[in-house]
Amino acid sequence: MELVVWIGAAITLAGFAAILWSLIAVMRLRRQGLEDAQMRARLARIVPLNIGALMLSMLGLIMVVVGVILT
């Protein structure tokens, strides 16, 4: 079960990296000073990626917890 913990940790780190990427992408958009409609259109493409990254990170943390419990 130790392998499940390490795989879960890797998945969590991948999710965290994707969350950081989406944060940086949003910060870049804010600096561009776009109009409201353009900003909303571009954010609409980033939000699903952010939610997916959160879910990936959550899945990894669940794997870590399950691996620790079963060890």
From TrEMBL:
Highest taxon listed in the record's lineage: Bacteria
The residue ranges crossing the membrane are 6-26, 47-70
Keyword vocabulary terms for this entry? Membrane, Transmembrane, Transmembrane helix
Name used for this protein in its record: Uncharacterized protein
Q: What is the lineage of its organism?
A: Bacteria, Pseudomonadati, Pseudomonadota, Alphaproteobacteria, Rhodobacterales
